[in-house]
């Protein structure tokens, strides 16, 4: 990692603080930004989120899916955690804390929105930052790419119905048109654009693709920081008036993150996976595609909603939590066997840049 990426937690904290300052100092600008919407989608947020997602989609080689049968156990573990465990534990924790534990601290309407934001985080498996976590644990880059690719394909089909099902359990009416529009806007279209861009760059040679990916990496993080700053600016009055809300939302999110990692990591050890597959598989299952979760929360419930705030707190929690889990994975490397990475030529991909 470069110095800029290494201190991502610091930049995220500064972006949050900067957003709060702008939200208080320039309320007119914040109001104008909040009003810049088309079909319930905020255009400014859409630009920043595309800045995050599009380079990642260019990095993903979907042709690598055909090699998944070579080592299926790590992929099966990730898919079970992402789609059969994590969404339901997130919904259960949201209900437990905001219907029972914190019931006297949060009014019912706000509790509905907090639960919804947590559910949207749980139903959106990570795409963008997976490659960073894999690289930091010396993971198998080709295998990680396969996991991300298949997760993205499944997400296109499963995100909307699974989110609607879980949101329905929380007695929240889901506008299907808005939810499906968000999936198209923030998953399908960037995916198509990424595939077309990748093909175009590969016609100029692998070196051209690698150069493009290296140059685009700061843009992804800048897009993330701008999104965080904007969302905290839009939420500035609420955050400063109710700072306890951040802590209340963070508690179940922290329990979810560490709990899912423990489940996945111990299962990987039980399955005798090599560390270069076990660590990324567990981290993929733990992290969230918070760009999509934030976008859908904004589309469904509004820029200043409790659901949007919950997903923003997910951004706040995720980076330091994932860095701590990377440290845990690296210190427990001796728990697992070693296995050479698949040759890049065999997997048809290059490692993350």
From TrEMBL:
According to the record, the segments passing through the membrane are 7-26, 32-54, 75-102, 114-133, 145-167, 179-197, 218-234, 246-268, 280-301, 307-329
The family classification in the record reads: Belongs to the arsenical resistance-3 (ACR3) (TC 2.A.59) family.
**Molecular-function GO terms, alphabetical:** antimonite transmembrane transporter activity; antiporter activity; arsenite transmembrane transporter activity
Q: Which InterPro entries match?
A: Arsenical-R_Acr3, BilAc:Na_symport/Acr3, Na+/solute_symporter_sf
Would the keyword Cytoplasm turn up in this protein's UniProt record?
no
Query: What name does UniProt use for this protein?
Result: ACR3 family arsenite transporter
Q: What is the lineage of its organism?
A: Bacteria, Pseudomonadati, Pseudomonadota, Gammaproteobacteria, Pseudomonadales
Q: What membrane topology is annotated for this entry?
A: Multi-pass membrane protein
Cellular location(s):
Cell membrane
- What is the species of this protein? Tamilnaduibacter salinus
């Amino acid at each position: 990692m470069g110095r800029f990426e290494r201190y991502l937690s610091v930049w995220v904290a500064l972006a949050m603080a900067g957003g709060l300052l702008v939200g208080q100092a320039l309320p007119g600008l914040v109001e104008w930004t909040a009003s810049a919407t088309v079909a319930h989608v905020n255009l400014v947020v859409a630009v920043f989120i595309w800045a995050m997602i599009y380079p990642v989609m260019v990095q993903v080689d979907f042709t690598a899916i055909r090699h998944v049968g070579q080592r299926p156990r790590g992929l099966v573990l990730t898919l079970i955690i992402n789609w059969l465990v994590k969404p339901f534990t997130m919904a259960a924790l949201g209900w437990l804390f905001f219907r029972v534990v914190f019931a006297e601290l949060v009014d019912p309407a706000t509790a509905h929105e907090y639960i919804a934001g947590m559910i949207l985080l749980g139903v959106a498996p990570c795409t963008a930052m997976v490659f960073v976590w894999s690289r930091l644990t010396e993971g198998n880059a080709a295998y990680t790419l396969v996991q991300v690719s298949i997760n993205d394909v499944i997400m296109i089909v499963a995100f909307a119905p699974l989110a609607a099902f879980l949101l329905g359990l929380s007695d929240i009416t889901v506008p299907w048109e808005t939810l499906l529009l968000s999936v198209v806007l923030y998953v399908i279209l960037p995916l198509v654009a990424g595939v077309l861009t990748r093909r175009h760059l590969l016609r100029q040679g692998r070196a051209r693709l690698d150069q493009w990916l290296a140059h685009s990496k700061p843009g992804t993080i800048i897009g993330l920081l701008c999104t965080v700053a904007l969302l905290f600016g839009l939420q500035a009055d609420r955050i400063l008036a109710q700072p306890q809300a951040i802590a209340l939302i963070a508690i179940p999110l922290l329990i979810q993150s560490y709990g899912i990692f423990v489940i996945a990591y111990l299962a990987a050890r039980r399955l005798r996976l090599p560390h270069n597959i076990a660590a990324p598989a567990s981290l993929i299952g733990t992290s969230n595609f918070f760009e999509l979760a934030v976008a859908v929360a904004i589309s469904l419930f509004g820029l200043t909603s409790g659901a949007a705030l919950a997903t923003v707190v997910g951004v706040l929690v995720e980076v330091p939590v994932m860095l701590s889990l990377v440290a845990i994975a690296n210190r427990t490397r001796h728990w697992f066997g070693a296995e050479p990475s698949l040759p890049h030529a065999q997997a048809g991909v290059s490692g993350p840049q």
